[in-house]
Design goal:
Layout lengths: L1 H16 L7 E5 L11 E7 L17 E7 L2 E7 L10 H14 L3 E10 L9 E10 L26 H14 L3 E9 L7 H10 L3 E3 L3 H9 L4 E10 L10 H25 L1
């Protein structure tokens, strides 16, 4: 794993040499949620395929750009498009950018995703603040030799989502009159959507939403003691008793509409940190 640490440091140095200096907040933008960048006063943009050892996003709704600039007086680095296990990437590749962000100096990590709700009191188009998660991916980015320079062998996960960030997010949403559900996110490998029996299982084990991302990055952030918060945009309602075939275009349209609220919350949060 020393080779992995060398690669992380090499990519960090490459980005610093290209002007990515001293970002304070890292942001990962999920499916259909890339327009937050319109609120960034952009200094530098690099496509993923121009960055050493960075994976390349293969999902159509993920642009694949690393953006550096400012929101208010805060320097930010934003991933416009993330990487998923179902794309064939290893867990080490998925969390590589998070580790690089930490090496660049990021003090907080904000994550977004699109997810389906199994808690039928939630509605599509609403937001959910993650308070906990269930890892059903069948893998973990910390498996293998530990990178001692990044964190401990057995990191604590009793509070994976920062209470400090979550309290700020809740206050901002209330100020804007944005409905912000709170709950538990489960991640599965995908890329297929779940069966009716699987949705019932998710509900039984206590999940409110289900998606295919986020948890690897959150685990890596906790390993490095990097405070993290995550918000899901609820894009479809997964009622096993009234399940309809999924329409990916409709999911992206819902994500696009809900993105307005998500953007307000993230922009205000960054300015207040």
């Amino acid at each position: 794993m020393e080779n992995m640490l060398d690669r992380i440091k090499g990519t960090t140095n490459f980005l610093k040499s290209n002007g990515f200096n001293g970002p304070e907040v890292g942001i990962i933008l999920g499916t259909g949620l890339g327009r937050l960048v319109r609120h960034i006063e952009i200094d530098h943009v690099l496509e993923y395929d121009k960055i050493p050892d960075f994976p390349v996003s293969t999902v159509e709704s993920h642009d694949g750009k690393l953006i550096y600039g400012r929101i208010g007086n805060k320097k930010v680095v934003a991933m416009q498009g993330r990487f998923h296990y179902y794309e064939g990437y290893s867990m080490q590749q998925i969390v590589f950018p998070v580790r690089v962000m930490k090496m660049l100096g990021v003090k907080y990590l904000l994550v977004s995703n699109a997810a389906g709700n199994v808690n039928l009191s939630f509605r599509k188009g609403e937001l959910m603040l993650l308070t906990d998660h269930i890892n059903l991916l069948g893998d973990n980015p910390l498996i293998g030799p530990n990178l001692d320079e990044l964190g401990t062998r057995f990191p604590d996960m009793s509070s994976p989502y920062s209470e400090f960030l979550n309290s700020k997010i809740s206050a901002i949403a209330e100020r804007h009159g944005i409905k912000l559900n709170k709950g538990i996110y489960a991640a599965v490998a995908g890329p297929n959507l779940e069966t009716r029996a699987e949705y019932r299982y998710m509900r039984t084990i206590g999940a409110d939403l289900v998606g295919m991302s986020t948890i690897p990055e959150v685990i890596a952030a906790n390993h490095m003691k990097l405070p993290v918060a995550a918000i899901s945009v609820i894009t479809d309602e997964c009622d096993p008793d009234n399940l309809k075939p999924v329409n990916i275009r409709e999911i992206l349209e819902v994500a696009g509409r809900a993105e307005v609220s998500l953007t307000k919350v993230f922009v205000d949060l960054v300015k207040e940190l």
